[in-house]
Specification:
The complex is a heterodimer of chains A (213) and B (133).
Chain A (H helix, E strand, L loop, with lengths): L1 H30 L3 H21 L4 H14 L8 H17 L13 H30 L6 H31 L9 H25 L1
Helix pairs in contact in A: 1-2, 1-3, 1-7, 2-5, 2-6, 3-4, 4-5, 5-6
Chain B lengths: L2 H26 L6 E3 L2 E3 L1 H7 L2 E6 L2 E7 H7 L9 E6 L4 E5 H4 L3 E2 L5 E2 L12 E6 L1
Parallel strand pairs in B: 1-9
Antiparallel strand pairs in B: 1-2, 3-4, 4-7, 5-6, 5-9, 7-8
Classes of the chains: A mainly alpha (213), B alpha+beta (133).
Chain lengths: 213, 133
């Protein structure tokens, strides 16, 4: 039963993450704001930390990355969104690595300074890690050749662009941890229909968005 | 060093790396109106005068520009298939492609290349140089 609950959680948070990347991310992009940094610093950190706090299960965030990446990859179905899909999947995996040594009750993150610092480290590493992974895998996955020289000369730009994500993450993480004190209990009877219902809604909106575009 | 001290220390390192990188990026950014093709500078108008205009179909619709196959031949590259081509943007972003990919692309008047069958990562914007190597 615990495993089914976890799978439903992965599906729910992964779908919400994918929804935010596709729908909200596209809307932010149209405003000209730095989409990737805002998505990572705010939405990605929120979903990853919140799910870690609620479910306390290792591997969950990687699963969420796969669901969210799949949503990004298949929207629009005919398009090539390989880069961002790979980046999203990598972000989930990188988060797992960074938080491997952090306990599930977040006992190490007692002060606002450590919480904020962890937000900065997480958002920055996830952002630049996802960026680098996609720069390596996208040429390979799309049938071209990966040239290490192309990546090396662009590294300063990647390291620079992660700074905004880091600063956003430094504010967002302590804010999420404030919700630890709120006790929300949903009965199983309501949990599964809610989780699957919200997930289904996210998928339908994304697919519907493609048909309307 | 305990985690309570190590985490803020690491965050400080991250901020310093980000800050130094930002300063480096702004200091080294290339800002010019011309595009260097195989070592020689051309304006976008000269490039459009030089090469044949063609339209290609991409997953984002039709894209029109100077055919890169024709352009590379017109700038005097004798054996196009013998070389690789590094397309460089003003922010340092670059992508290297072989002739099989290069010959399918176009260079738009917004100084951006498009290829019909590659990921969007290859559609380099704000081009300042196409290096033949």
């Amino acid at each position: 039963m615990k495993n089914i609950k976890l799978v439903a959680g992965i599906l729910l948070f992964g779908s919400l993450w994918g929804f935010s990347e596709v729908i909200i991310g596209s809307a932010i992009q149209e405003t000209g704001l730095p989409t990737g940094t805002i998505m990572t610093g705010f939405f990605v950190i929120t979903f990853l930390v919140l799910s870690r706090m609620m479910y306390r299960q290792p591997g969950m965030q990687f699963g969420m990355g796969i669901i969210a990446g799949a949503l990004r990859l298949f929207n629009p179905f005919v398009g090539c969104h390989l880069c961002s899909a790979i980046a999203i999947m990598a972000e989930g995996a990188i988060f797992e690595l960074i938080w491997y040594k952090i306990s599930f009750d977040f006992s190490e993150l007692k002060t606002v300074i450590t919480q904020s610092s962890m937000g900065i480290i997480s958002a920055y590493t996830i952002y630049i890690g996802g960026y680098i992974v996609t720069q390596i895998l996208t040429p390979i996955a799309s049938g071209a050749t990966f040239y290490i020289g192309n990546l090396i000369v662009f590294l300063p730009r990647i390291f620079s662009s992660g700074l905004i994500a880091a600063l956003i993450g430094g504010v967002v993480l302590p804010t999420i941890l404030l919700t630890k004190k709120i006790d929300i209990t949903i009965k199983d009877k309501l949990y599964y229909p809610t989780a699957f219902g919200i997930s289904l809604l996210c998928w339908l909106i994304i697919i519907g968005n493609w048909f309307l575009a | 060093m305990g985690k309570e001290k190590f985490i803020p220390f690491l965050a400080l390192i991250v901020i310093i790396i980000g800050g130094i990188s930002t300063a480096y990026v702004y200091a080294t950014q290339i800002d010019k109106d011309t595009i260097a093709l195989n070592g020689q500078e051309y304006t976008i108008d000269q490039i459009f005068y030089l090469g044949d205009i063609k339209t290609i179909q991409t997953f984002e619709g039709e894209k029109t520009g100077v055919g890169l196959d024709d352009l590379i031949k017109k700038i005097g590259v004798g054996c196009p298939a013998c070389y690789e081509y590094t397309i460089k943007a003003k922010d340092g972003y670059e992508k290297t492609v072989n002739w099989d990919i290069m010959k399918t692309g176009v260079l738009s008047d917004f100084k951006r290349v498009f290829f019909p069958e590659t990921a969007k990562a290859f559609w380099v914007s704000d081009i300042v140089e196409i290096e033949v190597k």
